[in-house]
Amino acid sequence: MSVHRFINRALSPWMMMEGPDHDIVLSSRIRLARNLKDIVFPTLASGEDLQKVLQLINDSIQNQRFGSIGSFEMIKMNDLEVIEKRVLVEKHLISPHLAEVSERGAVVLSENEEVSIMVNEEDHIRIQCLTPGLQLSQALQIANAIDDWLEERIDFAFDEKRGYLTSCPTNVGTGLRASVMVHLPALILTNQMNRIIPAINQLGLVVRGIYGEGSQAQGNIFQISNQITLGMSEQDIVKDLESVVSQVIAQERNAREMLVKTSAIQLEDKVWRSYGQLAHSRIISSSEASQCISDVRLGIDLGFIRNIPRSILSELMILTQPGFLQQYAGKKLTPEERDVRRATLIRERLKLEKDSMGE
User: Fold this and answer.
1) Fewer CB within 10 A of the terminal residue: the chain, N end or C end?
2) Integer angstrom CA distances of residue 317 from 11, 30, 293, 325, 346
3) What is the distance between the alpha carbons of residues 215 and 28, in angstroms, rounded to a whole number?
4) Which residues bind ATP (predicted)?
5) To 10 degrees, the CA torsion angle through 36, 42, 45, 50?
6) Is the dihedral of CA 323, 310, 243, 130 positive or negative?
7) What torsion, rounded to 10 degrees, do the Cα atoms 210, 15, 135, 215 define?
8) Closest CA to 110 of 151, 144, 61, 149
């Protein structure tokens, strides 16, 4: 496999599939934090220790295939340019932290990018599994299988009372962080999110932006995840999160129905105005593009727009991010140059889709 294949294509193969509740849930993610026994954790480890971890992981995956997931490839952060690392962050294949702290860091990617294993981030190993729609249980099953497969080759730091040991105390125990990416435009339009977020927090869950901790919500997309890993089983954590997300889905659907009943013409106008901005703008910022893409996606879900597949919007959400724009340009761009190129790319992509449908 070529490293550039992971960087140059906007949509990972799994993103092109539609899972349960795909109109609201973009993806489900399971992440397992693990550390190697008898090696200092990354926050305090020496360069020699971190290099040893890299070598152990690379030896474990070398020439190995894992069932339907296929083979893996290790990409070392030091081998990538700043823009290339940013692209991997925008595709959610690595964390912003790994991109920044790249000394002897790496990511191990599966062929379809459904599985990524971050090496020497905050922990020695962070196994991440991504699936389309609301499929946390399926993602957990795959992540656990990868975990078992690695544990046959590597000894993990584990305590009989505390469970898996991690750099951050909030991950001790199962080491599990489960999260779901949801698109909630109707709850924003009806001013309900300010009430819902505190209610979710009281249940031991957290609501963050599209790129996790410290990030802002873009395009009405939010990430809901667990905070507690100690004293609960993996299955209970996933069950609790699925239950809360199901309630959020129901509330978003109710809000959409209410908007259609009470403000259908205003909503349809908002959707088509946003489509017009995407189709005709010559300059468009990242935040403006994200909002317009969110509006058009809602219009597709509600049947206002019928000739544009939802996957185009998912593609544009990634293609219009700063890293991808600069990767396609082959050079660093100023914010103003990015805004111009973003508008051009969106216009061309929408026109290509219309032409393919014979419109």
Assistant:
1) C
2) 10, 22, 7, 11, 10
3) 18
4) 27-31, 92, 126, 177-181, 208-213
5) 70
6) negative
7) -10
8) 61
CB 64 within 8 A of CB 72: yes
Q: How far apart are CA 357 and CA 355, in angstroms?
A: 5
Q: Which residues, 6 or more positions from 329, have their beta carbon under 8 angstroms from its beta carbon?
A: 337, 341
CA distance 293 to 278: 8
Q: What is the pLDDT of residues 49-70, one digit of tens each?
A: 999 999 999 888 876 777 777 7
What is d(CA 158, CA 93) in angstroms, rounded to the nearest whole number?
26
Annotated binding site for ATP: 27-31, 92, 126, 177-181, 208-213
Q: Per-residue b/e over 180-209, b at no fewer than 16 CB within 10 Å?
A: bbbbbbbbbbbebbeebbeebeeeebbbbe
Q: Which residues contact 184 (CB under 8 A, 6 or more apart)?
A: 24, 193, 220, 221, 222, 248, 252
Closest CA to 12 of 311, 281, 331, 329: 311
pLDDT in tens, 301-336: 999 998 888 888 888 888 889 998 998 888 899 999
Q: How is residue 306 written in tokens?
A: 């019928």
CA distance 350 to 58: 41
pLDDT for 10 equals: 62
185, 298 contact by CB (below 8 A): yes
Distances in whole angstroms, Cα of residue 84 to Cα of each of 99, 124, 214, 309: 9, 22, 21, 28
Q: How far is CA 136 from the centre of its chain?
A: 13
Summarize pLDDT for 168-225 with one digit per residue, the tens. 888 888 999 999 999 999 999 999 998 999 999 998 899 987 655 544 568 899 999 9
Token duo for residue 298: 């809602």
Match 């990868």 to its residue by tokens: 146
